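Quick one: structure tokens for this chain, please?
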Amino acid sequence: MIRPLVFDEKWKVPVGSLGCCWKESGAQSGAWDKLFPKKVAVQWHDESQSRLYSAEVKIDHKRGEEIARNLPPYTVISSGRIEKQPKPKLIVGFGENGEVTVWISNASSEMNKTGRILVELGSGQATWEHFDPY
């Protein structure tokens, strides 16, 4: 379970449980009227490892802003529909050994889409402490 993501120590995005797959935005939340973040702080617990992870990852916000302003379209394969003005997706991924990676994309996943981009904007390694869920 993931606690809320905290961007720039100013605003939070609720998350809860993990989404399905690495590099996809399966558990989505939205944010509007916010500056592109420079860092994200996160905590999550992994009951299978009895660990509480904590990390703060710097985000290349200048590169992220540029990409977000110039997102390319993507095509939905099944319908042929072209999404000409995709909304930026900021994806935060968690590895099983405490890795944290932040990407920006024009689509939530590659499923049924062509033309998706996925650009890494930051990564880091979490620290952990023992966590007893009981």
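Residues 80 and 113 are 9 Å apart (CA to CA).
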